[in-house]
Amino acid sequence: MKKRESWGSHLGFIMAAAGSAIGLGNIWKFPYIAGENGGAAFVFIYLICIAVIGLPVLMAEILMGRATQRNPVGAFRALNNSKFWVGVGGLGVIAGFLILSYYSVVAGWALGYVVEAVKGSFYQYTTPQMAGEHFNQLVGTPAWILGYHFLFSAITMGVVYAGVKGGIELGSKIMMPVLFGILIILVIRGVTLPGSSKGLAFLWVADWSKISGNSVLVALGHAFFTLSLGMGAMMTYGSYMSSKDNIPNSSLQIVALDTIIALLAGIAIFTAVFSAGLDPAVGPGLIFQTLPVVFAKMPGGYIFSILFFILLFLAALSSAISLLEVIVAYFVDEREWPRHKAVLTMGTVVFLIGVPSALSYNLMSNVHFFGLNFFDTVDYLAANILLPLGGLLISIFVAWIWGSDRAIRAVKTGASRWFKEHHQISEGWLTVLKYLAPVMIFIVFLYSIGVIKL
Ligand code: PHE
To answer: In a mutational test of the pocket of ligand 1, which residue from 20, 33, 168, 313 has the highest number of ligand atoms less than 8 Å from its CB?
Structure first.
């Protein structure tokens, strides 16, 4: 059998995993859901969810990958050969197809907006309504939306085609520092704008009156999405690690990077939005409809708008490659396909699944399933159903099926002496996976599918 691929360095793994975590979730979604849920109070709850549930589940996923050196299907099969659990791995691969298909459409908008920014289109806008109309006109053009969806899919395939070390790792090691550098520039621009302190206050001064049960559930759901949990992406990346790698520390670093980037993106965006006197709570259009107007008014806005959409594109790309890698790893490990065949075939399939999502904004805007267009249906199915369900089952699997003793032994392998000597830590981790995570995720799940209303 051919030797399985692996990371070239520990740093390479951290960059790739942080790249997976840091994505549209951090830069597009987090700021707008924080905006809708009242800012600081929501951020506080989100941080608790990340630390208490996100981190332990992230450790569990990476661990399963490293212990088995397999894709999600192979990982479950190696630890427990029952049809049910192998099927859970399969669900992860299916989620990979679904999420990547529409993720690539939105990522394509980012790419298209880099071009709009370069063309200087934003200068025509004086109000978010005008920017909104232009946005609707662009996504309403099939050739625009499909063209960028295609371009983004092709770039993602190119990186994954080059392999774990030569493509994903190398790409992440270049993209992540660039992303961080751009974000720092945007944060500095944001906080030096007149009136930026209102934006900062929005993020740091808690308005508890806006917090409802709903906000808590949104926060937990987002903790999963932003850490790429529940579908085996982190499992797959973990499968290219060695037993020398320190999983608790790596997980902590990934969570820290993901959280810092989300908060910095929040600072960059809200300082600018408040300084321009615009509304922070407009929902998903915040980035494509409000920000362009902010850039139009801001000194140096031309250059900052280009940087911003490049940032969004890089964040999306490093996440998209992890989604494609889950699918590719499955075909390489389980079906023994060569990598290039898996990438080209499955990348094309993902692109095609994404076509109806892209057309949901134009030719297929009248096609609805349960009141949602195709794009929203796939998003709902994947993010609200498959990810929480996957996270729930992975927690249960590691804590109850794989078993406490084996899981604890595995998590200590490669860990620091401090971690090994403080048994309470690994036991606390297991307790979260056993009880707290499944119960909390189950509640979110019932809420997501509309069984509970808050
Ligand atoms: N974490 C990514 C983001 O925040 C999305 C993602 C989800 C990527 C699941 C991989 C797997 O945008």
So the answer is: 20
